[in-house]
Design a protein that fits this description.
Number of strands: 9
Distance between the termini: 98 Å
Largest sheet: 6 strands, antiparallel
CATH architecture: Sandwich
CATH topology: Immunoglobulin-like
Strand content: 25-35%
Shape: globular
Order of helices and strands: HEEEEEEEHEE
Number of helices: 2
Helix content: 10-25%
Structural class: alpha+beta
CATH class: Mainly Beta
């Protein structure tokens, strides 16, 4: 009998505690402190702040595509040119995709294999100040792109990978980060694409 009363008392006590806990949570949830986040900057990657575009130069000979990178970040950004939209070899590396109207796949253009200086030197970096843009003209020379392949409407896209991007001017990058960009915590890497444009040459 005593044991039964003790069990009953425990259940009652447990129910009271549970009810108090629910009461506390319900009433305090409406009075949690509010934090003003208006002055905090949204967290975003440096790469996300690099805006890309491509265009073509009218009446150029040979036909020419122009890649552009704009730094929309609020701070300077330094880019390793290797395989970036600012690499002079984007066409030879197969990063510029040209697709004739109605084709299922881009043109199969000749590509080259290159041996880059590694680790890179500061000369291989370009710094963009906030709001600054830099362009990379890409001539479509007939040795690489036969003129017959450039007739009609074409879809053109630049796709690749940022090999190294720093959130600072190139002169401010530590030697250790430049010597080992693949493992440096200061470096961002990632895929990029300009999106497709339609052109007539």
């Amino acid at each position: 009998m005593v044991h039964s009363q003790a069990c009953s008392s425990s259940r009652i006590l447990g129910g009271i505690l549970a009810a108090l806990a629910l009461f506390f949570l319900y009433h305090t949830s409406w009075n949690l402190p509010q934090f003003d986040l208006g002055n905090q900057k949204p967290v975003m990657s440096t790469i996300a702040g690099l805006k890309l575009s491509i265009s073509h130069t009218p009446n150029s000979s040979p036909p020419e595509i122009v890649a552009a990178v704009t730094n929309d970040n609020a701070f300077p950004v330094s880019i390793l040119k290797y395989e970036s939209p600012l690499d002079p070899l984007v066409l030879a590396l197969g990063l510029l995709q040209i697709t004739p109207d109605g084709a299922d796949a881009p043109l199969d253009l000749p590509k080259i294999a290159v041996r880059r200086v590694w680790p890179p030197t500061r000369d291989q970096l370009v710094t963009l100040e906030p709001g600054e843009s830099q362009q990379n003209p890409v001539p479509l020379r007939e040795q690489v792109v036969p003129p017959d392949n450039l007739s009609g409407e074409l879809s053109i896209e630049l796709k690749g990978r940022w090999q190294a991007v720093w959130s600072k001017r190139k002169e401010d990058i530590d030697d250790s980060s430049l010597e080992n960009p693949n493992i440096s915590p200061e470096v961002e890497r990632g895929e990029y694409t300009t999106g497709k444009i339609k052109v007539h040459f």
